[in-house]
Amino acid sequence: MIKNEVPKNHRWFFFLILAKAFIGKPVVDSNGMIHEPFFLIPIGYLFLVSGVIGLLIVWTKKMKK
Questions:
Q1: Which 3-state string (H, E, C) describes 28-63?
Q2: Nearest to residue 15, comparing CAs of 6, 25, 3?
Q3: pTM, 2 dp
Q4: CA angle 7-9-10, nearest 5°?
Q5: Residues 30-65 pLDDT 10s
Q6: If we measure between CA atoms, which residue out of 38, 14, 18 comes closest to residue 26?
Q7: Do 34 and 28 form a contact (C-beta atoms < 8 A)?
Q8: Quick check: helix, strand or coil at residue 27?
Q9: C-alpha angle 4/22/10, rounded to 5°?
């Protein structure tokens, strides 16, 4: 039986291509100012909050033992 799986390194490549498609292209206006679709700051805050919540969960589980 042959598995129809994509190797892990190809998965990361696909993820990078998909992320590049969502980020988009930077645009330079007539004044020479670059405008980028920069939504990474809110995503960073989301990761920070999820990390703090994860640490709180681990800490409470250790305190119960």
A1: ECCCCCEECCCCHHHHHHHHHHHHHHHHHHHHHHHH
A2: 6
A3: 0.45
A4: 65
A5: 999 877 776 667 778 889 999 999 999 999 999 987
A6: 38
A7: yes
A8: strand
A9: 25
